[in-house]
Amino acid sequence: MDTTAQHDAQQRADRIAVFKAELALLERDQVLVLTEQQRSSLDEHLSQLLDELAKQFGVDVSESARRLSWVIRIATLLGGAALFASVVLFLHRIWGSLPESAHTPLLAAFPVILLVSAEVSCRAGVHAYYTALLALAGTIAFMMELSTLGTVHNMSSSPNAMLAWSAVAVLLAYAYGIRLLLAVGAVLFCAFSGALWVSIAGSDWGNFPERAGYIIPSAAAVYLIPPLLKRDHHKFNEVYRACGAALALGSLFIMSQVGYSYGTGLSTRAFEFACQLAGLGLSAAVVLHGLRLAQRFVVNTGAIGFVVFLFVRLHAWWWDWMPKYVFFLLLGLIAIALLLVFRRMRANLAGRNAQ
């Protein structure tokens, strides 16, 4: 089943529910009154449409059905995680008794079985949630397979595994429209890029989290991917931008804390201060860009980054000499001021969109 069509079908069912509720309010207030024939014809049409959507796409046509679906999905997630853990622990228990010739085929078979199951599930028209769970489990199994194969064959440590993991996650994300896997793939790609640059600089690639500045170029590249795409596949543009912004802001935050100046010649305090100011400026720019694009995740990412960097900077300025109650009072006042600014920005944006 096409996950895009399934998602669109659920959105249409939700719009029908909102329309019916709004129509009931309009009739109650005598703003719009339909004749009995018109209301009967409309109700019959909407009822048939919802039945067709439920049969063809398995959408939830009522609030009770939506709640029950969430219960079923949570139970499926917990059950699937338990089965996955059971298989992994069983293999761990019998691993030593298996012949070495069976290790590699067994490791390769595990993710292949899960990914084939995901494809069969998709083609059989099963709900996209269950296909996504199988694809996610297959990705995790592939990661575990490469790690275990490296240990079994005594291979040297390398960041290249993260590139392979990223490629698999991105391919499955596009195959089944799974935004979570796209985010995982983007993060793994940026981690690989940072580790590669750290290795080229002459350090152990495993230290790349402490040299987070090397992640920023790839994070910027991820953020700039959407304009290169012909269309927004499963609303992936927002995922690219949110991941790129989060990785860049997170890298700046780490840089402002570890005291490594990347050969800039600045003192530790001056470099940390510069990173914090850069984080404030970048997070504000992300918020503005997200508002302009009407992308909620991008706006939220930038807003969280701005609050974190602002708190860190204000803490450095005021915490040591200012009474604590005054410090938190000022934080509250600043939060209120930012709220007013963001509300004004939202109103201006809504006005421009209306024009």
Descriptive report:
The protein has about 350 residues and is mostly helical. The protein folds into three domains: about 1-60; about 70-155; about 180-320, no CATH class. About 80% of the residues lie in helices and about 0% in strands. The chain has helices at about 5-30, 35-55, 65-95, 105-125, 130-150, 160-175, 180-200, 215-225, 235-260, 270-295, 295-320, 325-355. Helix 7 (about 180-200) runs antiparallel to helix 8. The radius of gyration is 26 Å and the shape is flat.
Globular, elongated, flat, extended or rod-shaped: what is the shape?
A: flat
**Mean pLDDT score:** 84
Strand content: under 5%
Number of domains: 3
Total of helices: 12
The run of helices and strands is HHHHHHHHHHHH
Oligomer: single chain
Determine the fraction of residues in helical runs and give it as a percent range.
Answer: over 70%
Summarize the structure.
The chain is mostly helical.
Q: How does the SSE layout of this entry go?
A:
Layout: H1 3-28, H2 36-57, H3 63-94, H4 103-123, H5 128-152, H6 160-176, H7 179-200, H8 216-223, H9 236-258, H10 268-293, H11 296-318, H12 324-354
Helix pairs in contact: 1-2, 3-5, 4-5, 5-6, 6-7, 7-8, 7-9, 8-9, 9-10, 9-11, 10-11
Keywords for this entry:
355 residues
